[in-house]
Design a protein that fits this description.
This protein is mostly helical. The protein has one domain (about 5-60). It is built from three helices and no strands. It has helices at about 10-35, 45-55, 55-60. α1 runs antiparallel to α2 (about 45-55). The two termini are about 15 Å apart.
Length: about 70
């Protein structure tokens, strides 16, 4: 079952969930970086920007994601 088999309503629900999930993960990683002082956690800016702009860089790279 691929994404083409899903209804437009279900795809929109998936998109909304993914967007909120990316924002949450990005903020969590940045906060973890501030608390622990580990600079690598600041890479959380990538999922944060992806969530805020509703753009998935992984979809662009793999060209498999149609969401």
């Amino acid at each position: 079952m691929g994404l083409k088999d899903l209804s437009a309503e279900k795809v929109q629900k998936i998109r909304k969930f993914c967007r909120v999930f990316r924002i949450f993960i990005g903020l969590a990683l940045i906060i973890a970086g501030v608390v622990t002082g580990i600079v690598w956690f600041y890479l959380g800016i990538i999922p944060l920007i992806a969530g805020l702009t509703n753009f998935c860089p992984l979809c662009l790279i793999t060209k498999k994601c149609e969401i």
